[in-house]
């Protein structure tokens, strides 16, 4: 897996200062179906951990069984318009949760936490089109079971 790596970046997609880590292994949920997208979650186990500092921080997982409500923050480097260019600066947007399914980062229990993973959408990121997200809290047991013992 020498060609697979993960880059931690705060604001810029490629400014030459991003810490680089190789991926040691990938655990895809055993019930994932690429056509229907249930259980759309995987763990990337890095060969060595990132050093946490002012630019690289850990974000706690949503508590097991917790359902985010209200608003959530969505981050990404995806195109901001259909067929548009990809931005060089990390895009952040606040989204209202229309259902009980959380988006990426929420803060409804007194602190920010990792609530969801972007899964799919007909026209991802555009106004008036819903996004589809994987609820992290729903997979807390699967995550714990699939992490290496030294994590």
From TrEMBL:
Assigned GO CC terms: extracellular space
Residue ranges annotated for the Peptidase S1 domain, each copy included: 1-148
PROSITE patterns registered for this protein in UniProt: TRYPSIN_DOM
UniProt keyword terms in alphabetical order: Hydrolase, Protease, Secreted, Serine protease
Gene Ontology annotations of biological process type: proteolysis
GO MF: serine-type endopeptidase activity
Subcellular location(s) per record: Secreted
PANTHER family named in the record: SRCR DOMAIN-CONTAINING PROTEIN (PTHR24264:SF65), TRYPSIN-RELATED (PTHR24264)
Annotated protein name in UniProt: Peptidase S1 domain-containing protein
Biological source species: Allacma fusca
